[in-house]
Protein backbone atom coordinates (compact mmCIF):
# COMPACT_ATOMS: atom_id res chain seq x y z
CA UNK A 1 0.00 0.00 0.00
CA UNK A 2 1.15 3.51 -0.81
CA UNK A 3 -0.38 6.82 0.21
CA UNK A 4 -1.43 9.08 -2.66
CA UNK A 5 -3.04 12.52 -2.75
CA UNK A 6 -5.39 14.47 -5.01
CA UNK A 7 -6.13 18.19 -4.65
CA UNK A 8 -9.32 19.63 -6.06
CA UNK A 9 -12.58 21.33 -5.18
CA UNK A 10 -14.55 18.34 -3.95
CA UNK A 11 -14.36 15.33 -1.72
CA UNK A 12 -13.79 12.33 -3.99
CA UNK A 13 -14.33 9.00 -2.30
CA UNK A 14 -14.41 6.99 -5.53
CA UNK A 15 -13.07 8.67 -8.67
CA UNK A 16 -14.68 8.59 -12.12
CA UNK A 17 -11.95 7.67 -14.62
CA UNK A 18 -13.82 9.33 -17.48
CA UNK A 19 -14.17 12.73 -15.88
CA UNK A 20 -10.64 14.03 -16.45
CA UNK A 21 -9.11 15.60 -19.54
CA UNK A 22 -8.30 13.26 -22.41
CA UNK A 23 -5.26 15.34 -23.43
CA UNK A 24 -3.41 15.22 -20.09
CA UNK A 25 0.18 13.92 -19.83
CA UNK A 26 -0.79 10.28 -19.41
CA UNK A 27 -4.23 10.52 -21.01
CA UNK A 28 -7.56 10.27 -19.33
CA UNK A 29 -7.60 8.87 -15.82
CA UNK A 30 -7.54 9.89 -12.16
CA UNK A 31 -4.33 11.76 -11.32
CA UNK A 32 -2.76 11.55 -7.88
CA UNK A 33 0.75 11.95 -6.48
CA UNK A 34 2.77 10.24 -3.75
CA UNK A 35 4.22 13.63 -2.79
CA UNK A 36 2.10 15.34 -0.11
CA UNK A 37 3.97 18.65 -0.44
CA UNK A 38 3.51 18.73 -4.19
CA UNK A 39 -0.19 17.89 -3.87
CA UNK A 40 -0.71 20.80 -1.49
CA UNK A 41 1.21 23.17 -3.80
CA UNK A 42 -0.92 22.06 -6.74
CA UNK A 43 -4.06 23.40 -5.05
CA UNK A 44 -5.35 26.68 -6.49
CA UNK A 45 -8.02 28.91 -4.99
CA UNK A 46 -11.25 29.25 -6.92
CA UNK A 47 -13.91 31.78 -6.05
CA UNK A 48 -16.70 30.24 -4.00
CA UNK A 49 -14.94 26.85 -3.72
CA UNK A 50 -13.04 25.15 -0.93
CA UNK A 51 -9.79 23.44 -1.85
CA UNK A 52 -9.90 19.82 -0.70
CA UNK A 53 -6.92 17.50 -0.36
CA UNK A 54 -8.08 13.90 -0.65
CA UNK A 55 -5.85 11.17 0.79
CA UNK A 56 -5.98 7.55 -0.37
CA UNK A 57 -4.19 4.26 0.02
CA UNK A 58 -3.42 2.48 -3.24
CA UNK A 59 -2.99 -1.28 -3.05
CA UNK A 60 -0.64 -1.99 -5.96
CA UNK A 61 -0.96 -5.77 -5.68
CA UNK A 62 -2.52 -7.40 -8.72
CA UNK A 63 -2.27 -4.22 -10.81
CA UNK A 64 -0.32 -3.91 -14.03
CA UNK A 65 1.82 -0.79 -13.54
CA UNK A 66 3.91 1.04 -16.14
CA UNK A 67 6.81 3.11 -14.77
CA UNK A 68 8.21 5.89 -16.92
CA UNK A 69 11.37 7.99 -16.61
CA UNK A 70 12.28 11.29 -18.26
CA UNK A 71 13.34 9.71 -21.52
CA UNK A 72 12.25 9.21 -25.12
CA UNK A 73 9.49 6.71 -24.26
CA UNK A 74 7.99 9.14 -21.70
CA UNK A 75 8.27 12.04 -24.16
CA UNK A 76 6.53 10.10 -26.97
CA UNK A 77 3.75 8.96 -24.61
CA UNK A 78 3.03 12.50 -23.40
CA UNK A 79 3.20 13.93 -26.92
CA UNK A 80 0.76 11.28 -28.16
CA UNK A 81 -1.66 11.85 -25.26
CA UNK A 82 -1.59 15.61 -25.62
CA UNK A 83 -2.69 15.08 -29.23
CA UNK A 84 -5.40 12.62 -28.05
CA UNK A 85 -4.00 9.65 -29.97
CA UNK A 86 -4.90 6.06 -28.99
CA UNK A 87 -3.33 5.10 -25.65
CA UNK A 88 -0.31 2.90 -26.39
CA UNK A 89 -0.23 1.71 -22.77
CA UNK A 90 -3.94 0.90 -22.51
CA UNK A 91 -3.19 -2.55 -21.07
CA UNK A 92 -1.87 -0.95 -17.85
CA UNK A 93 -3.99 -0.20 -14.80
CA UNK A 94 -1.66 2.50 -13.49
CA UNK A 95 0.98 4.75 -15.10
CA UNK A 96 3.67 6.28 -12.85
CA UNK A 97 6.12 8.89 -14.07
CA UNK A 98 7.29 12.49 -14.13
CA UNK A 99 5.04 15.42 -14.86
CA UNK A 100 6.00 17.26 -18.06
CA UNK A 101 7.33 20.63 -16.89
CA UNK A 102 5.71 22.77 -19.55
CA UNK A 103 2.76 24.37 -17.84
CA UNK A 104 4.48 27.77 -17.98
CA UNK A 105 6.33 27.36 -21.28
CA UNK A 106 4.29 25.31 -23.79
CA UNK A 107 7.13 23.13 -25.09
CA UNK A 108 4.96 20.64 -26.94
CA UNK A 109 2.90 23.39 -28.56
CA UNK A 110 6.05 25.10 -29.81
CA UNK A 111 7.43 21.77 -31.00
CA UNK A 112 4.38 21.15 -33.19
CA UNK A 113 4.98 24.53 -34.84
CA UNK A 114 8.31 23.18 -36.09
CA UNK A 115 10.44 25.56 -34.02
CA UNK A 116 11.82 22.83 -31.74
CA UNK A 117 13.18 19.43 -32.70
CA UNK A 118 12.09 16.39 -30.68
CA UNK A 119 15.50 16.35 -28.98
CA UNK A 120 15.21 20.03 -28.00
CA UNK A 121 11.66 19.56 -26.71
CA UNK A 122 12.77 16.62 -24.57
CA UNK A 123 15.59 18.73 -23.10
CA UNK A 124 13.12 21.49 -22.19
CA UNK A 125 10.63 19.06 -20.66
CA UNK A 126 13.41 17.76 -18.40
CA UNK A 127 14.18 21.20 -16.97
CA UNK A 128 13.13 21.84 -13.40
CA UNK A 129 12.11 19.62 -10.51
CA UNK A 130 10.88 16.11 -11.23
CA UNK A 131 7.46 15.69 -9.67
CA UNK A 132 5.89 12.26 -9.99
CA UNK A 133 2.31 11.61 -10.99
CA UNK A 134 0.38 8.39 -10.55
CA UNK A 135 -2.52 7.91 -12.92
CA UNK A 136 -5.26 5.35 -12.38
CA UNK A 137 -6.39 4.17 -15.80
CA UNK A 138 -8.65 1.16 -15.16
CA UNK A 139 -11.59 0.09 -13.01
CA UNK A 140 -9.25 -2.42 -11.31
CA UNK A 141 -7.03 0.47 -10.20
CA UNK A 142 -10.04 2.36 -8.81
CA UNK A 143 -11.09 -0.78 -6.94
CA UNK A 144 -7.64 -0.86 -5.32
CA UNK A 145 -7.84 2.80 -4.26
CA UNK A 146 -9.13 3.25 -0.72
CA UNK A 147 -10.31 6.65 0.51
CA UNK A 148 -8.64 7.63 3.79
CA UNK A 149 -9.57 11.26 4.45
CA UNK A 150 -10.16 14.73 3.06
CA UNK A 151 -8.93 17.99 4.47
CA UNK A 152 -9.95 21.51 3.63
CA UNK A 153 -6.92 23.62 2.71
CA UNK A 154 -6.85 27.02 4.35
CA UNK A 155 -6.28 30.20 2.37
CA UNK A 156 -3.10 30.92 4.34
CA UNK A 157 -1.48 27.64 3.31
CA UNK A 158 -2.55 28.18 -0.31
CA UNK A 159 -1.03 31.69 -0.22
CA UNK A 160 2.24 30.30 1.17
CA UNK A 161 2.27 27.68 -1.57
CA UNK A 162 1.71 30.37 -4.23
CA UNK A 163 4.92 32.05 -3.07
CA UNK A 164 6.83 28.75 -3.29
CA UNK A 165 5.42 28.14 -6.78
CA UNK A 166 6.33 31.67 -7.91
CA UNK A 167 9.96 31.03 -6.91
CA UNK A 168 9.94 27.65 -8.65
CA UNK A 169 8.46 29.20 -11.80
CA UNK A 170 11.10 31.95 -11.86
CA UNK A 171 13.87 29.39 -11.48
CA UNK A 172 12.26 27.20 -14.14
CA UNK A 173 12.05 30.05 -16.68
CA UNK A 174 15.70 30.92 -16.05
CA UNK A 175 16.69 27.28 -16.65
CA UNK A 176 14.58 27.13 -19.83
CA UNK A 177 16.28 30.27 -21.14
CA UNK A 178 19.73 28.76 -20.48
CA UNK A 179 18.84 25.51 -22.25
CA UNK A 180 17.36 27.38 -25.22
CA UNK A 181 20.49 29.50 -25.56
CA UNK A 182 22.37 26.25 -26.13
CA UNK A 183 20.21 25.28 -29.10
CA UNK A 184 21.99 25.70 -32.41
CA UNK A 185 19.78 27.75 -34.75
CA UNK A 186 20.60 28.27 -38.44
CA UNK A 187 19.03 31.72 -38.30
CA UNK A 188 21.47 32.97 -35.61
CA UNK A 189 23.63 35.85 -36.85
Cα end-to-end separation: 57 Å
* Domain module count: 1
> Taking strands numbered 1, 2, ... along the chain, how are they ordered across the largest sheet?
2-6-5-4
Structural class determined from secondary elements:
alpha+beta
Number of separate helices: 6
Largest sheet: 4 strands, mixed
Order of helices and strands: EEHEEHEHHEHEH
Radius of gyration: 18 Å
Number of strands: 7
| Helix share, percent | 25-40%
Q: pLDDT average, as an integer?
A: 84
* Beta-strand residue percentage: 15-25%
* Contiguous uncertain segments of 5+ residues: none
The best one-word shape is globular
Walk me through the topology.
Elements: E1 2-8, E2 30-32, H1 36-42, E3 51-58, E4 65-67, H2 72-82, E5 94-98, H3 107-112, H4 118-125, E6 132-136, H5 139-143, E7 145-153, H6 155-181
Parallel strand pairs: 4-5
Antiparallel strand pairs: 1-3, 2-6, 3-7, 5-6
